[in-house]
Amino acid sequence: MNAKTLFLGAALALAVTLPATAQEADHSAHQGMAMETPAGQSPSTEAFIAANTKMHEGMAIDFTGNADEDFVRGMIAHHQGAIDMAKIELQYGKDESLRKLAEDIITAQEGEIRMMEDWLAKNAK
């Protein structure tokens, strides 16, 4: 295979994969840059990465065109992510003021999730 054929083949392969790669990059950026756990990370880092990934997957809702409903559906996953991260702080964190904040976040976000789930039950189509 000569250099010209190799170059044309590479250019064609790039032209075919670039749009898909751009879409994946855009999706990843929108999803908070889905993270992979590098080997040797601390248990808390692994837990935060998992919680962040779960939250962003949950926020990838099918939009209805109803701003209220879309807001609530996205925020439920967002709030659950905050709860999950606060629980990681309680499991691994040592700073008492941050542990108190984590407890407050759990209490507040759980209440707001209940309110939003009630709203969806009454108002979602």
Description:
The protein is mostly helical. It is built from four helices and no strands. Helix 3 packs antiparallel against helix 4 (96-123). The longest helix is centred in the first third of the chain and has 28 residues, at 3-30. It is flat. The N and C termini lie far apart (60 Å). The relative contact order is 0.09.
Name the helicity range: over 70%
Q: Which structural class matches the secondary elements?
A: mainly alpha
**H/E element order:** HHHH
| Number of separate strands | 0
What's the tally of helices?
4
Question: Proportion of β residues?
Answer: under 5%
User: How far is the N terminus from the C terminus?
Assistant: 60 Å
Mean pLDDT: 81
3D shape: flat
Question: Looking at the chains present, what oligomeric state does this protein adopt?
Answer: single chain
What is the rounded Rg? 21 Å
Describe the sheet with the most strands: none
Low-confidence runs of at least 5 consecutive residues: 4-14, 16-34
Features:
125 residues, 79% helix, DUF305_CopM-like, Ferritin-like, flat, mainly alpha, signal, 4 helices, DUF305 domain-containing protein
List the helices and strands and how they pair.
Layout: H1 3-30, H2 43-59, H3 67-92, H4 96-123
Signal peptide: 1-22
Protein name: DUF305 domain-containing protein
Pfam families: DUF305
